[in-house]
């Protein structure tokens, strides 16, 4: 099954990027991976994503900072946040700014896929 929809994964953990990429490709998504928000901002414009999945806690630029930068540029690409360190403050901030989901790692596959499908619909 090929969807021709591109998911961008932004996470500083290479293992997370690899496993999520493999999972999403197995469900027919095209996937681009980035090790940081800075890398995404530099290279992610080359191939626009239909949905961005980002970690919250990353060096150099947190996921919520990436969201703010994208909003400043007028981006409306749906974003899904994942974190191993959830706080209500960050959850509230990213959801208020338009995030489609705020998920705690490890994320259940079915839950993640449901949020992706909703975001790209």
Automatic annotation (TrEMBL):
Residues 6-120 form the Response regulatory domain. The keyword Endoplasmic reticulum does not apply. The modification 4-aspartylphosphate is found at residue 55. PROSITE patterns: RESPONSE_REGULATORY. Pfam families: Response_reg. Keywords: Phosphoprotein. InterPro entries: Bact_response_regulator, CheY-like_superfamily, Sig_transdc_resp-reg_receiver. GO terms for biological process: phosphorelay signal transduction system. This is Response regulator. The lineage of its organism: Bacteria, Pseudomonadati, Pseudomonadota, Alphaproteobacteria, Hyphomicrobiales. It comes from the Bacteria.
């Amino acid at each position: 099954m090929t969807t021709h929809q591109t998911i961008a994964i932004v996470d500083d953990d290479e293992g997370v990027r690899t496993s999520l990429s493999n999972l999403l490709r197995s469900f027919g998504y095209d996937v681009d991976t980035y090790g940081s928000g800075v890398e995404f901002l530099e290279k992610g414009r080359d191939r626009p994503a239909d949905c961005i999945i980002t970690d919250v806690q990353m060096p150099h630029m947190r996921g919520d900072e990436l969201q703010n930068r994208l909003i400043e540029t007028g981006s409306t690409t749906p974003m899904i946040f994942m974190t191993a360190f959830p706080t209500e403050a960050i959850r509230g901030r990213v959801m208020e700014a338009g995030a489609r989901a705020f998920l705690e790692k490890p994320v259940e596959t079915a839950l993640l896929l449901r949020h992706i499908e909703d975001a790209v619909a």
